[in-house]
Specification:
By secondary structure, this protein is an alpha+beta fold. The protein is 39% helix and 18% strand. The strands form 2 sheets. Strands 5-4-3-6-7 form a 5-stranded antiparallel beta sheet, covered by helices on one side. A hairpin with a 5-residue loop joins strand 4 and strand 5. Helix 3 packs antiparallel against helix 6.
């Protein structure tokens, strides 16, 4: 989470990320500055721009082990690549960076959602913090619409993290 937060912060200050965030709001939010519209625009951009791929096959082929390493692709780097692809952590970082570019707060949410391993965090997604304090889940890697999140009946552990990587009560 700490490394994700560092990559997000670097990307928020990146001119390409800022330009993409602005374009995403024009394209997906019809130019609206309404915070909920901005949040949804960031979700729609990530949902349509990034192809979901798992890290495990690449990690296994390069390092010979599937579970000890995690690839994290900086949003600023991903925006400069020919093929934008990644798993849930990459979608999360992209949406957080786009929100940050547009002046909205965010949290990173980790959940343990695997019945085979109910103690291990197995999924991560972004949650926008709107100016009125409300939260909007933005899981573009798995959700079909902004606001979707893993159903609570499938979650055995949940933790929110602030933009500095600190746990949120």
């Amino acid at each position: 989470i700490e490394q994700m937060c560092l990559l997000i912060k670097e990307s928020i200050n990146d001119p390409v990320t800022q330009m993409v965030a602005q374009r995403a709001c024009k394209t997906w939010g019809q130019g609206s500055d309404d915070p909920r519209s901005v949040a949804w625009s960031c979700w729609w951009y990530a949902k349509h721009a990034i192809k979901f791929v798992l890290d495990e096959p690449a990690v296994r082929s390069i390092f010979g082990t599937p579970d000890t390493l995690e690839f994290l692709v900086s949003p600023a780097l991903m925006l400069r690549s020919r093929k934008m692809q990644g798993d849930c952590d990459d979608f999360t970082m992209m949406i957080c960076a786009l929100l940050g570019c547009r002046g909205l707060g965010y949290e990173i949410i980790t959940v343990a959602a695997s019945p085979r391993d109910p103690q291990t965090f197995s999924h991560v997604y972004c949650r926008a913090i709107l100016p009125d304090g409300s939260r909007v889940p933005l899981d573009a890697s798995h959700g079909k619409y902004p606001g979707w999140q893993v159903p609570t009946g499938h979650v055995s552990r949940f933790q929110a993290w602030d933009s500095e990587g600190n746990p949120v009560a």
